[in-house]
Amino acid sequence: MQISFFQFLPKFNQVKDNSTAVKKLIDDNAEAIKQSDLVVFPEYFLSGPQTMDTYKNKYINIVKDLDLKTEFKDISKQYPGVVFVFGTILDGEDKQVKNVSYVYKNEKIIAEYSKKALIYNETYICSSDARYPVFEVNGKKVGVAICWDTILPEIFRKYAGKVDLVVIPSFWGIGGNALQAQYKFSLEKKYYRALLTTRAYENAFAVLFVNSVGKFSSPHYSDRMMGGSLAVVPPHGEVYFTNNKNPDTLHTVTVDFGELEKYREFYATDKDYEFYKTKKIF
Q1: Taking every pair of C-alpha atoms in the chain, what is the biggest distance, in angstroms?
Q2: Three-state secondary structure call for residue 41
Q3: Segment 33-83, tens digit of pLDDT
Q4: What is the pLDDT of residues 233-254, one digit of tens each?
Q5: Residue 30 and residue 40: Cα distance in Å, rounded?
Q6: pLDDT value at position 178?
Q7: How many domains, in total, are found in the chain?
Q8: CA angle, corner 271, sides to 266 and 277, nearest 5?
Q9: How far apart are CA 150 and CA 232, in angstroms?
Q10: Mean pLDDT, all residues of the chain
């Protein structure tokens, strides 16, 4: 499976400008995208994260004049057969607002996944659900998780034995706390790289983590460095990792699921989980 992704960095709440920039990136990389089975964007790729104030007083007013799902449909129309995971957007009304990832193929929504592990201001703005949709890409089953969902093994267990790949659009900063400041290395990167490797091996599927890169600024999230995307495929582990700081670069990863099947033959961790569930030990 050939997967392409952008680590696009949005300008805060400049949704129309961000959308225009994304469409230009797609147009500029049209030939490569036509050769892809799957194309992925990061979480919040059109706006950046919100507070309740910026959501109610700015974001809503901006997006009501834009039909983002129609824009996604139009992009999909240009690339028949290609599956697009359009990062995430805040969508819904009143208490049903969700941080949702829409998946398109041939102009249709084939899956939508709502972030489960809401964090920071999301806990005031968003709700979620217990749905774990699975869709198909080039004969392989694919699921979605979003950013901070990575810390919860229970979310990924929902896909064990059901998918070959979990795609994780993210907006994960790589600094900003007191413990991080004590080290020369990025503790955040070590943290999510270890978690993602664990999620892949314990469930016997591949994972693709797509993050924004660069310095993001907003009134409440100032000068936060974003960065680092990777793919993990057992038995090889990380088969792709990038520190590329250009948010406009198209990255391409080829995932060999034949290698994953070899791992599953000897380390059936997905089946082990279902077996031990029957023992009533957890």
Answers
A1: 54
A2: coil
A3: 999 999 999 999 999 999 999 999 999 999 988 999 999 999 999 999 999
A4: 999 999 999 989 999 999 999 9
A5: 14
A6: 87
A7: 1
A8: 140
A9: 13
A10: 95
Measured CA to CA, the distance from residue 95 to residue 178 in angstroms comes to: 34
183 is in which domain, residue-wise?
2-277
In one-letter notation, the amino acid at residue 176 is: G
Q: List the CATH number of the domain containing 83.
A: 3.60.110.10
Are 143 and 137 within 8 A, CB to CB?
Answer: no
> Which distant-in-sequence residues (6+ apart) come within 8 Å of 88 by Cβ?
43, 44, 45, 99, 100, 101, 115, 146, 169
- pLDDT > 70 in the chain, percent: 99
Taking the mean position of all CA atoms in its chain, how far away is CA 83?
14
In a domain, 195, yes or no: yes
Look at the block and give the residue holding tokens 């993050």: 211
Backbone angles phi, psi at 277, to 5 degrees: -60, -35
Is residue 262 assigned to a domain? yes
Give the DSSP letter of residue 248: T
- pLDDT over threshold 70, residue 223: no
Assigned domain for 265 exists: yes
Would 282 be classed as within a structural domain? Answer: no
The first and second tokens of residue 213, run together, are 């890169």
